[in-house]
Amino acid sequence: METSATSRRYGFNDAELLAQPTVFRPGLFAGQTVLVSGAGSGLGKAVAALFARLGARLAICGRDPARLGAAAALLRGLGAEVIAVPMSIRDPDQVQALIERVWAEAGGLDLLVNNAGGQFPQAALDYTAKGWNAVIDTNLNGTWYMMQAAARAWVAAKRPGAIVNIVADIWRGMPGIAHTCAARAGVVYVSKSVAVEWAPHRIRVNCVAPGCVETTAFSLYPPEGSATFYEANPMLRAGDAQDIAEACCYLAAPSGKFVTGEVVTVDGGQQLWGDPWPIGRPDYFRIPHGAAPAPKE
């Protein structure tokens, strides 16, 4: 994996991804079905790959059929059964059809990992209504459609289930991508709310909040923006996709059986210290900021 902010390749290639060590035992998720959204690349692909390595049956979805097909081939190469469905989580009818297909073909669902989402770097003053709504509709509404459809199926079948929502490191705000901060904060708190409502149905709901975790998505930001990601935590480096995949497995495995309504933040300490600027750090916030004032006598 390249770690330079100016590198042309970010994140793991497939060979590197499959070579990542894991703390979990082989076969841990044998007999279980895991649905991962946005699994064609980045974090979703890494999460799906780890569950496949650990014996799970996979259902994956995403908007790009070519990427989704390539991911499905990778997972099948690990010996996993895979249901791959190109679709948009923004459409509640497509979401319902996806959940029904997974139950019909896999005989049920054990875990939903809501990873699909996206945003673009832009100053908040420049957002259009269309741009704002696109991010909210995917990151908040789409995630909710998936959560509700999965929960309704579990309740109807009187079966337990678990949800892990991939959110973001929202705790200090996210200047430069304020739209996704708003959406991800909404997911965090709807997750906490329904973790209580759905506990009687034996449905656990948790979130994983990545900090600056290097994937191919780093290339979507201007170089002056992605350069700040490596300075955004006291460890002075980016995380990687395996860090997030392992957190998801922790919450889904017996290790997480008494965890619900929680957010596992995987950020190298960013929430305590960091200063990421996806659009590049404005001159006003550069340090030092001008000359120090002369002391008064």
Give the key terms.
297 residues, alpha/beta, seven-stranded parallel sheet, two-stranded parallel sheet, globular
Task: Show the helix and strand layout.
Layout lengths: L13 H5 L14 E5 L4 H12 L3 E6 L2 H13 L4 E5 L5 H15 L4 E4 L14 H29 L3 E6 L11 H20 L5 E8 L2 E2 L8 H7 L9 E2 H12 L10 E4 L3 H4 L24
Parallel strand pairs: 1-2, 1-4, 2-3, 4-5, 5-6, 6-9, 7-8
Helix pairs in contact: 2-3, 2-8, 4-5, 5-6
Number of helices: 9
Instruction: Report the radius of gyration as a whole number of Å.
Output: 20 Å
Main structural class: alpha/beta
Beta-strand content: 5-15%
What's the short story on this structure?
The chain has 297 residues and is of the alpha/beta class. The protein is 39% helix and 14% strand.
Structure description:
- This protein is α/β, with parallel strands linked by helices.
- The protein is 39% helix and 14% strand.
- It is built from nine helices and nine strands.
- The chain has a seven-stranded parallel β-sheet with strand order 3-2-1-4-5-6-9, sandwiched between helices.
- Helix 7 (223-229) links the parallel strand 7 (213-214) and strand 8 (239-240).
- Helix 2 (42-53) runs parallel beside helix 3.
- The chain is globular, with a radius of gyration of 20 Å.
- The termini are far apart.
- 45% of the residues are buried.
